[in-house]
Design goal:
Blueprint (H helix, E strand, L loop, with lengths): L12 H22 L12 H10 L1 H15 L12 H14 L12 H28 L19 H11 L10 H4 L3 H22 L10 H4 L3 H24 L1 E5 L4 E6 L2 H27 L20 H22 L5 H9 L4 H21 L3 H26 L1
């Protein structure tokens, strides 16, 4: 062994985990608080959920999702965020399990295509599932639209005006189900979830140390202590929230006064909320029994997978391209004052949507700018490397000329 070789010290993932959890929670809370400034169409309260779920696992992501809505519900005019807590939790669980082999995208052929379509796929899948459960909560778990009165329908969010218009103008069949509304709700749900997972992939690749970017497959992370610990933490946080929803029910507020003006309890809601808790309890008991039978559980959180030391630019390109595409879609919707009734109504609702375009502009620029300041932008690194080679070559030629 070469004596000059230095032993590499790998900082355990446990040192990074608290920073990751706090960063994810801050992203969610700040996004949820300031989303209203963008005219309210984007929610931005799952940015950190996606980051933590993919980087640390589904149950850490679910725990951050639960804490996010619990904290946001304490702010004035945001009490109803608690009703949607289970949606944020389900997003964390789905992203965590869909992202088990996520780092494999960073070291395989055709990486741009794989990452681009994976971001869209995971964003759309999670977006569609969250749209279903969000609508159930919004419509107070009423399945048939004939039971919904558009005159008394809530006015808490910008999308509520869109729902009222769909019901009042007969755009949807009042004898049908809320699934008719869901297919028209993708404009608010899908972009939000696609942006979340795109930002998560960007931050994980460029910010998380490469020795901790690991595929959390069944064989690699099923029986780790950290995996058991994450389930215990989630059960404690979510169990408390489950007791609250059982006690308080589905809250409704008066948007003019920001005061709670009623609550309701629904069996379907209790069943829905209990599903993540029961599933996690089952996994915790099962893994705990296996841990007793297999006392040699690895202490490390995840297996290690070293990706290239030199960061590639395709991850940045995927992130920029996706945000640019979404900004283009919103711009077209803003411009379509004429056309179909549904598109025209969306355009009217987005009349003050310059905030959304500003969001895409800022988030498309800011992370890249931070990379450049930190000196880890792959384009800048390549440019500097090329410049260094060029200067070195000129110096060598100068020395040769002097010797001659």
């Amino acid at each position: 062994m070469d004596a000059s070789a230095e032993k590499t010290t790998v900082v355990p993932f446990g040192y990074y985990l608290p920073i990751l959890l706090v960063a994810g929670l801050m992203l969610n809370v700040l996004g949820g608080l300031f989303a209203g400034l963008l005219n309210g169409l984007l929610f931005l309260d799952t940015l950190g959920t996606a980051l933590v779920a993919v980087a640390a696992g589904p149950w850490w992501g679910a725990a951050i999702g639960a804490l996010t809505n619990l904290i946001l519900s304490q702010f004035p005019c945001k009490q109803q965020y608690f009703n949607y807590l289970v949606v944020n939790v389900l997003c964390g669980i789905m992203w965590g399990y869909l992202g088990r082999d996520w780092p494999g995208l960073f070291r395989t052929a055709e990486t741009y295509k794989r990452l681009f379509f994976t971001v869209w796929f995971t964003g759309i899948v999670v977006g569609l599932v969250s749209a279903i459960f969000s609508l159930l909560t919004t419509f107070n778990f009423v399945w048939y639209l004939s039971d919904v009165d558009p005159e008394t329908f809530r006015r808490w969010h910008l999308t509520d005006e869109y729902y009222r218009w769909l019901l009042k103008d007969g755009v949807v069949d009042r004898s049908g189900t809320i699934l008719q509304v869901m297919v028209r709700d993708v404009i608010a749900i899908l972009p939000d979830k696609v942006v979340s997972i795109a930002l998560a992939s960007f931050l994980i690749y460029y910010a998380l140390p490469p020795e901790h970017v690991a595929p959390r497959s069944q064989s690699a992370a099923k029986f780790t202590r950290a995996d058991l610990f994450s389930k215990g933490i989630f059960i404690a946080i979510y169990g408390f929230c489950f007791v609250l929803i059982m006690y308080r029910g589905n809250l409704s507020i008066d948007p003019s006064t920001c005061l709670i003006n009623g609550s309701s309890r629904h069996l379907a809601q209790i069943v829905l909320w209990s599903a993540p808790l029961l599933f996690c309890l089952y996994l915790l008991i099962r893994h705990a029994r296996l841990a007793i039978w297999r006392p040699t559980i690895p202490a490390n959180t995840f297996g290690e997978l070293w990706i290239e030391d030199t960061k590639q630019r395709y991850v940045k390109l995927v992130y920029i391209d996706i945000l640019t595409m979404l900004a283009g879609v919103f711009s077209l919707l803003l411009a379509f004052k004429q056309g179909s009734r549904a598109v025209s109504e969306i355009s009217v609702l987005l009349g003050d949507g310059i905030g959304i375009l500003a969001f895409f502009g800022v988030f498309g620029f800011l992370p890249i700018f931070v990379l450049r300041l930190a000196g880890i932008d792959p384009d800048v690194a390549r440019s500097d490397a090329g410049k260094g080679k060029s200067v070195g070559g000129e110096a060598a030629e100068s020395v040769v000329r002097k010797l001659e």
